[in-house]
Amino acid sequence: MLVTGAARRVGAAIARALHASGAHVVLHYRSSATQAQALANALNALRTDSASLAAGDIAEDGEPERIIEHLIERHGRLDALVNNASTFYPTPMGSIDLAAWHDLIGSNLKGPLFLSQAAAPHLRRQLGSIVNIIDIHAERPLKHYATYCTAKAGLLGLTRALAVELSPDVRVNGIAPGPIEWPEDQQFSPDERQAIIAHTLLKREGRPEDIARTAHFLVCEAPYITGQVIAVDGGRNAHL
């Protein structure tokens, strides 16, 4: 099973959950080589040769295809793809440039599309699954994040389109996280964070494991679910 952006945070939690089910996990990363290697070492210590690495920028032309080709050459099969890798930062109107467009669209939409396309023949053979990590702001835009929200809205549409395109052999679903784990770059002040949490129905922040459990369910325990997006957001989207 391939998890993109698997070195840290939500991606690492998803990789651990799938690994715990007995899967071999391929941990994709772009720049977090040290964290990815540490996670692979930890998983391999639990079960020999059960985790491997795949490096690359999925926004770059040809990289998704190269990653899938290398994975198949090494492992011979692919049962599931979790498109988790993402960039996230504000692009207020008037400041949007092509570099931000290519980065945000590339990691959040272009990369998942071309990874899914390259993986599709192999997933068909295994009656496999794709899970896309979207965002509640795909449908409820966040001010000053127009480019990011547009990319995630595209990923939501892609999720449903791929469910149609790849049926009946491959199931395709999405997860829309709410406030799970804050960016490490302090994009939100403590007051802003508290206001977001207060607006959830559960009045608390979620954990990466909440997303991981849902991803595991969709990959391993939901053979009759496809074309769906599950919000894991403490109820925030119910009254945004």
Outline the structure in words.
The structure is a single chain. The protein has a single domain, classed as 3-Layer(aba) Sandwich (Rossmann fold). It is of the alpha/beta class and 240 residues long. It is globular. Helices cover 46% and strands 13% of the residues. The protein contains seven helices and seven strands.
pLDDT under 50 segments (min length 5)? none
Task: Report the oligomer.
Answer: single chain
Topology pattern, helix = H, strand = E: EHEHEHEHEHEHHE
Count of alpha/pi helices? 7
The strands making up the biggest β-sheet line up spatially as 3-2-1-4-5-6-7
Instruction: Give the number of DSSP strands.
Output: 7
Distance between the termini: 34 Å
Q: Give the overall shape, derived from the CA principal axes.
A: globular
Major beta-sheet overview: 7 strands, parallel
Q: What percent of residues adopt helix (DSSP H or I)?
A: 40-55%
Question: What is shown here, in short?
Answer:
The chain contains 7 helices and 7 strands. It has helices at residues 9-20, 33-46, 63-75, 98-126, 146-165, 190-198, 208-220, and strands at residues 2-3, 25-29, 51-55, 80-83, 129-133, 171-177, 229-232. Strands 3-2-1-4-5-6-7 form a 7-stranded parallel beta sheet, with helices on both faces.
